[in-house]
What does this fold into?
Amino acid sequence: MKPPCEIMVQKVLPSIRAELVRVMMFEYGCTQNEIADILGLSRAAVSQYVSLKRGAEVGFSKATNDEISKFASQLIDGLTVKEKSKGMCRVCRLVQKSGWLYKNAPEAGYCILCDEIEDDHD
It folds into this structure.
């Protein structure tokens, strides 16, 4: 059995990054270099996200897509490392609460640790 966080790291986080890249590029007009700098990725990784070679495994709910768009805007405006982490956790929790993890890996269940970590940092 893989723990929920491992599945999230392998499948969901790359898909969140891919959607962030697409939103930042196509909705906000950022270049691949700008996106790479903001997200701390290589330009090659950004290119793979744009071309759907990476992070194309997860479909998101409207609420999650809306949160990703909001987060992309905040990233462009500038966030601290802590704020970036909290934003990514917010999106990740939305994916979990949407039931994606249970539908795609029912043996993993739901990660209660994310909620506990968020409660500790608020």
